[in-house]
């Protein structure tokens, strides 16, 4: 038995898991595609919807590749490519694009179902061609050569740039991100109190997050800064960053989330949350506050207005919510400079096996400065 | 006993990775479904190796890598990036961010196990 055959046999054991997870992703994708329809020919699309769709199709592409459902892999890849152009504002959501996405999702479902029923796979050529036709000319990556995905915050445009789409000036940076303090300090293990409000966290928003922030402000949503300091005691109670994330998603939309080291080796997670109409919402209801308290969270209004000139005001007409705890203003900072190149240079060997579409890239220990 | 942290937002993919590495002697696994959870796991319980996806909710895998390499206590933990990206620029970006190995999906189980083994052996 060849390596490929052995691999296929190995992963065939996961087909039931694949079908179950695919069902969940397809259910989400269908719901999000229906919601996306209302943005056809609009100047803006709901980025959260596009991101969720991207994630669903990206995961379906990866899983389908692992279990050898090539038709599903190819379809998910093409839908991902078009959605990426929407997210990056390289294309506008057209009715043709929406129809192609719907057709692609339907064909994707059929491809997965065919594998489940052990029937011949559907012919996907026309659907693939339709999806490729809606891509801008420079956005037609073949499946094996260009899987560009979302870009991490580090390489995004710096805060303070002007969006060409709306011509709006984003808040200017106030100060670069300070390095984490070197002196040792005992972390406070008491639930919910390890976030030090006297040390303003540095938060870098990527372009998608900046756009979400714009949209939230345009819709007069209240903006909050939550801090969560995990520890073993909380973890033993089942409270961790994922449960916190779930709680926060029940309260509003998470615009940004990032970790921050604090003195003594502890960590704090910063979340920026947008929530309903600011005119009517000045604080969370008692039930939500109880959940927040029990989860070890602290929160305060997101003082993003500091970036508009350092006055401390929002500068955008938002109603300031009540202060349930000591405010910890955020500073919008320029991204930290990239790490210096690896000593000796990272050596990349790419071995491509055409039959398995496998590509491995290896760097030797010394090349990345490991001790 | 060596501890491996498998980070991927797909539960099926995490099971596939664990099954591939199960044949390694004396290993146990931790799992994380988001980049933030991966950081939390690192803080609460040290690991010997991380297998890291890139495209995840809330925090991109490259940002997880950069966070680890910027902080002394996590700097030397080996990381295998396992992703669907199979272009050179993504590979180079991951290595520049501090990846110890770069592998793409679909992956060969034996190759992943061999990569993990060498990193655990010479850590």
TrEMBL record, chain B:
It holds the Pfam family Response_reg. SUPFAM superfamilies: CheY-like. This is Response regulator. Residues 3-120 form the Response regulatory domain. The modification 4-aspartylphosphate is found at residue 53. It comes from Planktothricoides sp. SpSt-374. Keywords: Phosphoprotein. PROSITE patterns: RESPONSE_REGULATORY. It comes from the Bacteria. The keyword Phosphoprotein applies. One of its GO terms (biological process) is phosphorelay signal transduction system.
């Amino acid at each position: 038995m060849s390596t490929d055959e052995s691999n296929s046999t190995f992963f065939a054991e996961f087909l039931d898991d694949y079908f179950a997870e695919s069902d969940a992703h397809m259910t989400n994708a269908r719901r999000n595609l229906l919601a996306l329809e209302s943005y056809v020919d609009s100047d803006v699309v709901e980025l959260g919807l596009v991101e969720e769709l991207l994630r669903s199709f990206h995961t379906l592409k990866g899983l389908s590749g692992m279990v050898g459902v090539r038709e599903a892999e190819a379809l998910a890849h093409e839908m991902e490519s078009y959605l990426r152009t929407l997210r990056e504002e390289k294309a506008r959501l057209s009715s043709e694009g929406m129809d192609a996405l719907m057709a692609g999702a339907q064909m994707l479902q059929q491809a997965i179902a065919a594998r489940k029923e052990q029937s011949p796979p559907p012919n996907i050529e026309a659907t693939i061609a339709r999806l490729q036709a809606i891509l801008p000319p420079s956005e037609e990556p073949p499946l094996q050569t260009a899987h560009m995905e979302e870009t991490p915050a580090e390489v995004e445009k710096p805060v303070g740039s002007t969006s060409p789409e709306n011509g709006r000036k984003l808040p200017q940076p106030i100060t670069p991100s300070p390095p984490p303090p070197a002196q040792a300090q005992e972390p406070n293990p008491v639930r919910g109190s390890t976030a030090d409000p006297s040390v303003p966290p540095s938060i870098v928003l990527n372009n998608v997050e900046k756009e979400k922030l714009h949209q939230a402000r345009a819709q007069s949503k209240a903006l909050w800064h939550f801090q969560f300091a995990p520890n073993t005691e909380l973890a033993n109670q089942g409270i961790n960053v994922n449960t916190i994330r779930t709680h926060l998603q029940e309260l509003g939309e998470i615009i940004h989330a990032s970790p921050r080291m604090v003195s003594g080796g502890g960590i704090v997670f910063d979340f920026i949350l947008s929530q309903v109409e600011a005119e009517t919402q000045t604080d969370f209801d008692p039930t939500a506050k109880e959940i927040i308290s029990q989860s070890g969270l602290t929160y305060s209004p997101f003082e993003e207005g500091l970036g508009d000139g350092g006055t401390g005001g929002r500068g955008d007409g938002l109603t300031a919510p009540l202060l349930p705890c000591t405010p910890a203003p955020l500073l919008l900072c320029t991204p930290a400079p990239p790490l210096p190149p690896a000593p000796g240079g990272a050596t990349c060997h790419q071995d491509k096996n055409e039959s398995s579409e496998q590509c491995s890239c290896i760097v030797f220990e010394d090349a990345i400065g490991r001790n | 006993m060596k501890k491996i942290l498998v980070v991927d937002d797909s539960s099926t993919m995490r099971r596939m990775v664990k099954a591939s590495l199960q044949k390694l002697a004396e290993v146990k696994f931790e799992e994380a479904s988001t980049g933030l959870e991966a950081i939390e796991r690192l803080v609460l319980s040290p690991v010997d190796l991380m297998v890291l996806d890139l495209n995840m909710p809330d925090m991109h895998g490259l940002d997880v890598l950069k966070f680890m390499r910027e902080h002394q206590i996590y700097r030397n933990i080996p990381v295998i990036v396992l992703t669907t990206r199979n272009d050179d620029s993504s590979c180079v970006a991951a290595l520049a961010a501090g990846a110890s190995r770069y592998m793409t999906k679909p992956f060969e189980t034996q190759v992943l196990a061999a990569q993990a083994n060498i990193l655990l052996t010479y850590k």
